[in-house]
From TrEMBL:
<dbReference type="InterPro" id="IPR024983">
    <property type="entry name" value="CHAT_dom"/>
</dbReference>
<dbReference type="InterPro" id="IPR011990">
    <property type="entry name" value="TPR-like_helical_dom_sf"/>
</dbReference>
<dbReference type="Pfam" id="PF12770">
    <property type="entry name" value="CHAT"/>
</dbReference>
<feature type="domain" description="CHAT">
    <location>
        <begin position="422"/>
        <end position="699"/>
    </location>
</feature>
<protein>
    <recommendedName>
        <fullName>CHAT domain-containing protein</fullName>
    </recommendedName>
</protein>
Length: 700
């Protein structure tokens, strides 16, 4: 039975999961018949000692097996087996092509055993499969990784498992295939309750990062990250860790998997920031070795290089890669280069207040409260939360399309579908349990808290959640909420602040679109009054991408204020942009600019803080996130369409609070309180919830 199970797993993994599918099962019948006829004719014309004999026999055998699967004619299966047996005569022991024939024979004879129940077919299938694996090990065949997974799937039943070196060995195949194998192994282990599952998930996350290092454009990185197996990896791994009570690992894998696109640009800045400045030769050597390893792994089997030479070259590259990595990690500040951050390092994010990290998974949903010291606190959430959020997201998408009507959030479907009902649902299913836990932990009311949400929660107004009854307190009445796309973004802001880069005597750059927005001119006038000579106003024709970027980088404006439309491109997120008078300032342009003196960005533009959460790994790619990548430690943004008339008063109240002690004493770290008080003023003036709850604070 165990051998049958092994063969079945081999069949599933190789035939459905590996990239070896030379002939498609869904080939049209007429085309298939034509190819079979052509292949027979070509084979008949070959002499016995022709070098093409193996290829012709192998190809015709595959075609006949495809026809067998379509029509279930047994003689096609018998002939396919006979052809592959004949093909073996043309490939001696140890030849790389012999593996392909052995692999097919193991599957075809197993299929015939299932039809006829002849023991000799089962024994033949086992023999062919065993020889195929032995040959794969001997020649380090690219599909050996898949075989390791298949065997592991069977061995999990008797509590044994291949080593992590076998599962993810970097010398036998590409990083993508090793990742897929590790993910399959992890899922299989979790399903069976095996203790190796979490380790396999962690290995898969490491391999995701390896895959990203060979994708040198952010668009290519993101296209890889939005695939289902990658996009759900960190949440599934965290859920697995929580199940076994390992909250530290849950926090670590969530951070490791969240915002992987940004981590390539921001957290490590590999290969874009500090490393080339510190050690350019090491940077170039590291990149070159990675590329050569990947190219070698993807090279075809018919390259005119012996297996011994290929293995020696791979060994040389791996040795050089490890040596270069070790040298990089010996540099000051690079000791954790390409390493996951441990919990002790991540706790810096909670230096000024608790951070609430959410996780949504198909099997369970949770919130983890992290403080700078002490144990992590788990808050189990409803298992229905992913389904509920999916519905809420669709409602918010529909009502946001109503634009700038007098009450754009009063969805016509009734009270249950208004924004208030959404805020009540968020309170009931997420925020209320968290608030109860925070108060029980002794966190006093009025304290700052940081939300680090994932998936659909990233675009939800958690900061405004509440029961919205006459007697109950809403979240803004209890705690002062900020958001953090990643823990690393908070740590980065705090570390740069500790380095003494805070600027005394702020300079403000204000960018407007007064020709298209009626209240922008009033808003810009308020800013000019508040900041006087310390304000640079760019409006109309003065607001061009080149001018704005020069003002930021050259003139060292530490504050920037956008009063214009913003557009988030869900399909090509890095083509999202701010709308200027006659041009656009794209997200990629902001992201490419690293601004060491940046402190505060106020984005009074629609949808600046919301990104493509449905198709992002775990961090929405948004305009606010781009500003953080550019170096801004605090960002104010909007989750949906803001009301034009709210801009002038809100910005006046916001900056008025920051400037209350004089322009030389402005502290951007008070921006969260400044926004909180400005929004509270809107609430006290009776401004509807859909207008004030759109504003969010991100950062320290």
């Amino acid at each position: 039975m165990k051998h049958k199970k092994l063969l079945g797993t081999l069949y599933t993994a190789f035939d459905k999961s590996s990239p070896q599918g030379i002939i498609q099962k869904g080939k049209p019948k007429r085309k298939l018949e034509s190819e079979i006829s052509t292949s027979r004719l070509a084979l008949d014309r070959l002499s016995y000692d022709d070098p093409q004999q193996w290829h012709s026999l192998f190809h015709l055998g595959q075609l006949l097996y495809v026809r067998f699967e379509q029509l279930r004619v047994h003689r096609d299966l018998d002939e396919a087996i006979s052809l592959h047996l004949s093909a073996l005569h043309f490939r001696p022991l140890g030849h790389v092509d012999r593996f392909n024939s052995l692999y097919r024979l193991s599957i075809y004879t197993q299929t015939r055993y299932q039809l006829n129940n002849l023991v000799e077919d089962l024994e033949a299938a086992i023999d062919y499969g065993t020889e195929a694996e032995e040959l794969a090990r001997a020649i380090n065949h690219p599909y050996l990784t898949w075989a390791h997974y298949c065997i592991a799937g069977v061995k999990l039943h008797d509590n044994t498992i291949p080593s992590s070196c076998e599962t993810t060995a970097p010398s036998n195949t590409t990083a993508e295939i090793r990742f897929a194998s590790a993910r399959l192994l992890a899922d299989a282990g979790r399903k069976r309750g095996h203790t190796s599952a979490l380790r396999a998930y962690k290995l898969a996350l490491v391999l995701v990062e390896r895959c990203l290092t060979t994708r040198f454009t952010i668009s290519r990185q993101r296209s890889f990250l939005i695939s289902d197996d990658v996009r759900t990896l960190s949440s599934t791994a965290a859920s697995c860790a929580i199940e076994i009570g390992d909250l530290a690992s849950a926090v670590e894998v969530l951070e490791q998997g969240r915002g992987l696109v940004w981590s390539q640009v921001r957290d490590n800045r590999y290969p874009l920031e500090n490393l080339p400045d510190v050690a350019p030769e090491l940077t170039e050597a590291f990149r070159e070795t990675l590329v050569q390893l990947e190219l070698l792994s993807m090279s075809s089997d018919d390259v005119r290089v012996s297996s011994e030479e290929k293995a020696a070259y791979k060994s040389h590259l791996l040795e050089r890669w490890n040596d270069t990595l070790q040298k990089i990690r010996e540099l000051p500040g690079f000791q954790d280069f390409l390493r996951p951050r441990p919990l002790n390092s991540l706790r810096m994010a909670a230096a000024e207040g608790p951070v609430i990290i959410t996780n949504l998974d198909t099997l369970r949903s949770d919130a983890i409260i992290m403080q700078s010291t002490g144990p992590l606190s788990l808050v189990p959430l409803s298992t229905d939360l992913p389904r509920l959020l999916s519905g809420l997201s669709k409602i918010m998408d529909r009502i946001s399309e109503q634009g700038r009507a007098d009450r754009p959030w009063q969805y016509p479907g009734g009270p249950a579908q208004t924004l208030t009902s959404i805020l009540q649902s968020l309170w009931r299913y997420v925020c209320s349990p968290v608030v109860e836990k925070l108060l029980a932990m002794g966190i006093p009311e009025g304290s700052r808290i940081w939300w680090c949400p994932t998936k659909n929660l990233s675009s939800m107004p958690l900061h405004a959640a509440g029961p919205y009854t006459d007697t109950g307190k809403n979240l803004p009445d209890i705690f002062l909420s900020s958001y953090a796309p990643t823990l690393a973004s908070l740590i980065r802001a705090r570390v740069s602040l500790a380095d003494g880069t805070m600027i005394r005597g702020v300079r403000l750059l204000a960018v407007g679109q007064s020709q298209g927005l009626s209240q922008v001119k009033v808003e810009l006038e308020h800013l000019k009054e508040l900041f006087a000579a310390r304000a640079m106003i760019r409006d109309g024709y003065d607001a061009s991408p080149t001018t704005i970027l020069d003002d930021i980088l050259i003139r060292e404006h530490s504050f920037i204020h956008f009063a214009c439309h913003g557009y988030v491109n869900g399909t090509l997120p890095f083509e999202s942009y701010f709308v200027l008078h006659k041009d656009k300032l794209f997200l990629r342009q902001i992201m490419e600019a690293y601004v060491p003196h940046a402190e505060l960005a106020f984005l009074a533009s629609c949808y600046s803080a919301v990104g493509d959460s449905e198709q992002s790994p775990d961090e929405p790619i948004s305009l606010t996130a781009a500003m953080q990548v550019a170096g801004y430690r605090c960002v104010v943004g909007t989750l949906w369409t803001m009301f034009d008339e709210d801009g002038p008063r809100l910005s006046k109240d916001f900056y008025g609070y920051l400037l209350r002690g004089g322009i030389e004493n402005v502290d951007f770290r008070e921006s969260a309180m400044a926004l909180h008080l400005a929004v509270r003023g809107m609430r006290e003036r009776g401004i509807p919830v859909e207008r004030w709850s759109t504003f969010v604070h991100i950062g320290i």
